[in-house]
């Protein structure tokens, strides 16, 4: 079933659904989107995606404008700011020029195609101009390794164009590393892949992570590099750097819970499938 837009709502954004996944609006928000950039992050290596997007939402005082419902997302509610929120959310700033996408619960691997294609359909309807994915990447997933020099890595299709004297390599001028090759897995990789296939501008800003433990310092490095590719967007990272140890301890507890939830959810889904097909 092809994803399709349905009814309009109070903030002029359609409901988009493929029958398995829906992107639904928060109808009490009146923010009008102005060809926004969508910045996305997911639970990943070092929890970079989750930390950076939560920090951007807080710093830019963004408002939730939508959420994703899917049979492939573990049912859960997140209690943030003294209120319950959906676990898979879309935010926007007041001017409608920047959106943020965050997922804070496990997603089944078999549901990735449905979820990502429906999100990209929503982006097309919302006239999103570009998607920027923030995240961490393990050393085994790129070459050559840059771990000795911790700097943000820029991955973008335009980097394949041969630089000239008049137009030098943009990564060099921005002071970022560019891997010779890399593989980005999970929701982040799927989102970049679908965007590239469907002609939607996409960029990844990644940081090498040594292990899968939380890395708030790496998140700060990514956020400090973000204005280099999105001029005018500045995010204060002083609170991240001042509270590295406290944030790391909190995220380690969250990551442990996240992994247990994913294992429990996968076991439950497997038992249900066995029951259906017996």
UniProtKB/TrEMBL annotation:
Record Gene3D superfamilies: PAC-like subunit
Superkingdom of the organism of origin: Archaea
InterPro entries: Proteasome_assmbl_chaperone_2, PSMG2_sf
Keywords: Coiled coil
Sequence intervals crossing the membrane: none
Chain segments annotated as coiled-coil in the UniProt record: 248-275
Identification of the protein by name: Proteasome assembly chaperone family protein
């Amino acid at each position: 079933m092809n994803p399709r837009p349905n009814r309009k709502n109070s903030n002029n954004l359609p409901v988009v659904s493929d029958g398995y996944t829906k992107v639904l609006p928060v109808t009490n928000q009146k923010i009008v989107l102005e060809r926004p950039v969508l910045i996305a992050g997911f639970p990943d290596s070092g929890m970079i995606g989750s930390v950076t997007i939560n920090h951007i939402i807080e710093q830019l005082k963004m408002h939730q404008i939508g959420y994703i419902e899917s049979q492939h997302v573990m049912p859960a509610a997140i209690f943030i700011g003294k209120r319950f929120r959906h676990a898979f959310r879309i935010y926007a700033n007041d001017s409608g020029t920047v959106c943020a996408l965050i997922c804070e619960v496990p997603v089944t691997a078999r549901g990735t195609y449905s979820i990502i294609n429906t999100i990209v359909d929503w982006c097309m309807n919302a006239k999103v101009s570009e998607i920027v994915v923030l995240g961490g990447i393990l050393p085994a997933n790129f070459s050559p390794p840059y771990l000795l020099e911790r700097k943000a890595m820029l991955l973008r299709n335009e980097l394949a164009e041969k630089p000239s004297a008049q137009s030098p390599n943009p990564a060099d001028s921005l002071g970022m590393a560019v891997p010779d090759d890399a593989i980005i897995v999970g929701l982040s990789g799927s989102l970049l892949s679908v965007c590239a296939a469907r002609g939607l501008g996409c960029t990844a800003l990644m940081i090498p992570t040594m292990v899968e433990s939380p890395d708030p310092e790496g998140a700060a490095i990514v956020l400090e590099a973000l204005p280099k590719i999105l001029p005018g967007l500045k995010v204060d990272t002083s609170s991240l750097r001042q509270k590295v140890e406290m944030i790391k301890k909190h995220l380690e507890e969250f990551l442990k819970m996240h992994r247990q939830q994913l294992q429990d959810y996968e076991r439950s889904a497997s038992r249900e499938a066995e029951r259906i097909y017996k």
